[in-house]
Amino acid sequence: MFSLIDAVTSNGYAWRVVRAESVVAELRLSITNAGLGTLKISTDASLDTASLRRVFEQLVVKVFDENMVRKLQVVVSSKAQDAAVQPLIVALEKSGFELAARAPAAGAKLSATKLSVAEAMAIATMARHIDLNVWGFRFDNGKRRAGQCNYTERVISISKHLVAHHSLDEVQQVVLHEIAHALVGKDAGHGPLFKKQAAALGYRGKNFTGREIAANEAPWVGHCKAGHVHYRYRQPTRPLACGLCGKTFSRANQIVWQRSKAS
Ligand SMILES: [Zn+2]
Ligand SMILES: [Zn+2]
To answer: Ligand 1 centre and the CA of 258: distance in Å?
Structure first.
C-alpha cells in the first residue's frame, strides 16, 4: 500500500508516494497561467498498478476539484528501465490519461482533462456494480438534469456541463444515482427500493438543482429587489416575481432580467 504525502516546496505543489516509510516516487506539479498543469513523476522503485491507481485518483481529484488545472499532463521518468515506469503508465491510463508520447529513454508523456478523468471514474464505478457487456456509458449535453439512465438503450449518461461546473465527487454521486436506477429497474422510480439501493452504493441523496450549471450556462439572469438571483435558458416573456420573496405574484417582488455574461 502506498500513501500520498504533501511535500512543502517554495515553488508549486509536490507530493511523495511513500511505502513502508520510504519514498518510492516523487511528484512535482507546475502550472502555467493558462491552467495547463505538468506533473513530473520520477521513480526508480518497482510499483504495482492497483495501489498506484488509488494514489492517482486522490491526486487527480484534488488538482481538478480545487481548480488548480484545466488540463493535466504527466511526464514519467525513471533512471531505471521501463519496468519501473510501465505500472505507472497503466495506472494513469486507467485513471483517464492518454499516452501522448513515449520518451526514447525510460519514460512517457500522458495527458488528461477533467472530462476524461470523469469518464474513467464513471466506467470503473459502473464495472464494480453492473455488467459492462450490457450497460454502456456516454456524456450528454443536459443542463437541467445531471445524468440519465436509459433503459431502452441500456446507457448511463452524464452531463458534460455537470463535469464542467461540479466537483468530481459530485459527478461520482450522480454516477451512483444512475447505477442504482440500472440495478432496480425503471418501475422502481425514485421509490423506497431505489433509495435503499442508492444508499447501499454510497449515494448521499443530495438533490441536483441545476443552479451551478445555470449560473455558468444560462443566457438570462434576473434579480429581485432583495437580491435573489434567478436563471433562465430562454428569455422570459411575461413578468415573473421572486418565489423566495413571496408565494404569489407581487409587483414589488418582480424580477428584472438581463443578458448574462455566459451568453
Ligand atoms: Zn433518478
Ligand atoms: Zn427575492
So the answer is: 32
